[in-house]
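If you are new to this repository, start here. Below is one unmodified record pulled from the training split, so you can see the exact layout before writing a loader.
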Amino acid sequence: MQQYGGAMLATARAITANHADDAVQEAWISVHRAIGGFEARASLKTWLLRITMNCAYNQLRKHKQHLSLDDHDNHTDLFASDGHWQIPIKAWTDDSPEKLLEARAMNECIEHHMAGLPDGQRVTLQLTDFQSVNVESICELLGITPNHYRVLLYRARLSLFKMLDHFQRTGDC
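And here is the target side for that same chain:
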């Protein structure tokens, strides 16, 4: 629980922020019931995260939250062929009270924006950029192809980039 609990909670929060704790608790109960059937076809972490994701999706259905499947504009000029930013985000410093407040406002804006991302994009971005889960494991967890993974990650990063760019230019979320 100590080793994987944090990753499980972060995964559940990426899917259903309001009911993540319930999803993780349900996941641990499911793990306890099913541990004898663990066949090690995937790593233990991947197996635990998959169970957590299923429980988080169950929480979504239980609380009737609807997921958006919005599409985004095509902005291929923002990313290099390796998937990294071509236009780096400006560096932030927090050496004054004003900058600290600005950083706090930006963090709140990022959290708000992440909560509004479509489910697949949010989970893919969370697992890739915040938890450093490898591509193969993410594809297995989500039941998607590597190409679909790249599309989800691209759209999530593009959306986040647009939000950060807007915030840096205007100060508004």
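Two things worth knowing about this chain: DSSP finds seven helices and no strands in the chain. Confidence is low (pLDDT under 50) at residues 65-74.
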